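Please produce the structure of this protein holding magnesium ion.
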Amino acid sequence: MEESKVIAVMGSQGSGKTTAALKLALALSAAKKNVIVVFCDPFTPVIPAVLPAHVPHDTSLGNLLTAPALTQTTILNACVPTEKSDYISLLGYCAGESLMHYPQITREKAVEFFVLLRYLADYIIVDCTSTFEADPASIVAIELADRVLKLGTANLKGVSYYLTHNPMLADSRFRKDTHSTVIGNLKTGQDWEAAAQQLGGADFVLPYAPELEQQFDELALLMPLTQTESAGYSAAIQRILGIQPEKSKPKVTSEAAPASQSPKKAKSKIAFRLPFAKGRGEF
Ligand SMILES: Nc1ncnc2c1ncn2[C@@H]1O[C@H](COP(=O)(O)OP(=O)(O)O)[C@@H](O)[C@H]1O
Ligand SMILES: [Mg+2]
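Below is the modeled complex.
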């Protein structure tokens, strides 16, 4: 697996960013990696659409991004554990909120947030809002991420979005060498090669899988995909992460275990799991 701790997922509306962010987190959690998924969208809060209503979610990303003093403990306490995985927790805006609920979020605060966040889990996946130019957290995430996945649909809407938004990333503070272009939600009959040409090439393709829509509607995106038609999507997620398919994984014996799997490191990671799996403190 590649060492890209912070992965920002950006792109057009409906290109599958939220779906991909959760499936990337799920794939990493299967490899026993802790993941915090940050849903930056302050215009249509995502957590209410991906977590069952009974899961408490009372500390918003908005609170963190406007807190006078931000600490790692404050951020960890705000993470919402997921029932489906001890390894995955979520941060995002609460139901009914918008940027109007908070004082202006500054670029400095967003930088502070991502700098602190980076050390709180093995991986941070940031689901950016499509209009990232209007959201300081999304734009800073794209700037600071070790890796940026730029999702676009293989249709005129995806191309139009790209033509508008890609030039916004021309400044050298956005490191183009960390960017990958991904065709998302590719439907049968869509010409991904033609679209890829317009998007300046494509590194990965995430094919359409009906099971994903079903999982989305049933708040079950943190469940593994099981249908045969979903295999292409799962394989693409693994390719993006550089994870070898299960069958061809070499067995690691205790003598041959790489340094990253040494017992000492594994122990400290288990300690990090606690705030995700157990109750949360006061904000
Ligand atoms: N690869 C895919 N196959 C099938 N449906 C998908 C796929 N990717 C996304 N979707 C569906 O498309 C819709 C938008 O996906 P979403 O992840 O919310 O996109 P975004 O976050 O980019 O707006 C959802 O209904 C989701 O189920
Ligand atoms: Mg989304």
